[in-house]
Amino acid sequence: MAPFLAYEDKGPDTHRVPLVLVHGHPFDRTMWAPQLERFPGTRRVVAPDLRGYGASPTIPAVTDFSAFARDIEALLDELEVESFVLAGLSMGGQIVMDCYRLFPERVRGLVLADTFPAAETPEGVRTRDAMADRLLAEGMRGYADEVLERMVAPYASAEVKAHVHGMMTATAPEGAAAALRARARRPDYSALLPRVSVPALVVVGADDTFTPVSDALALHAALPDAELHIVDGAAHMPNLERPDVFDQALEEFLARVDARQPSPAPPRL
């Protein structure tokens, strides 16, 4: 059966733990372009387009936030990826937390970048619902223009800005709106964090205004076994703005997770 989601599946099956990359809103798997270039040289890397984003189908629309996690689980089942490190940024980080809530036995490590665990406030629900209405009525361009220099820092390179703006404007408004409504009603993951039994890496851009450093500090404090990296010279997307720094932190974390593995993974046929 063909997988429901569009995806990248790169790199060899080795003794190293596979890495699964979950993008944020309103992006697609190309958000991870620097990491998809670097890490498949040493391990298998899977990066899906979430439902409603990129080349994945918009219909049926997501109505419950956990559907994102179940889509990822189904894709990894289809690809025969049994255990893995899950990395997510912003909404992707919240989806990663939902994956851990639903199938923790498969997760060997968590990477939580520029994200936070709390459920939405009543005001936040109204704001996300209003934005969903706006995207359906107006399309993505106006929103993309407004938030570009919060997604990445005003001083980010023109190339990075163009990439981020292009992802946002290419996103289907129907998919983005459905995700906003589902995200507005997501559960609170705060009680889950102290029960996380695998290593975690928390990363945040020093100039992030969507999920500021204070959110990352609280996230780091709640996890039993976590490292924290604050990336200078970056806002909400340090993996694109400072891939050298982000990738070094991720490389070191993955080596730590690899060292904990009980035995080599079987080769992929």
From TrEMBL:
Gene Ontology molecular-function annotations: hydrolase activity
Xref: InterPro entries: AB_hydrolase_1, AB_hydrolase_fold, AB_hydrolase_sf, Epox_hydrolase-like
Keyword Repeat recorded: no
Gene3D superfamilies, sorted: alpha/beta hydrolase (3.40.50.1820)
Domain AB hydrolase-1: 18-243
Record's keyword terms, sorted: Hydrolase
Name recorded for this polypeptide: Alpha/beta fold hydrolase
Domain of life where this protein originates: Bacteria
Organism whose genome encodes this protein: Streptomyces massasporeus
